[in-house]
Amino acid sequence: MRIVVDFETCESNALCMAAAPEVFEVRDDDKLYVLVENPDEELRAKVEAAVRACPKQAIKIED
Ligand code: SF4
Questions:
Q1: If you measure from the C-alpha of residue 62 to the centroid of ligand 1, how many angstroms do you get, rounded to a whole number?
Q2: pTM check: above 0.85
Q3: CATH 3.30.70.20 is held by the domain 2-62
């Protein structure tokens, strides 16, 4: 799977980081960083939770 984030839409509220800290990190510069662009399948549930948690629908999973 591949993580695609629309950084234009993202408002850096870190809700995705709360759901999947292995994959998403909002840093002190107030920007979101995708730590792992192609996460292992074992992280899918967490990434899906991050997709659901994002109020901006800024995260997509491509298989
Ligand atoms: S939950 Fe959505 S809006 Fe918030 S930091 Fe993550 S991608 Fe950006």
A1: 17
A2: yes
A3: yes
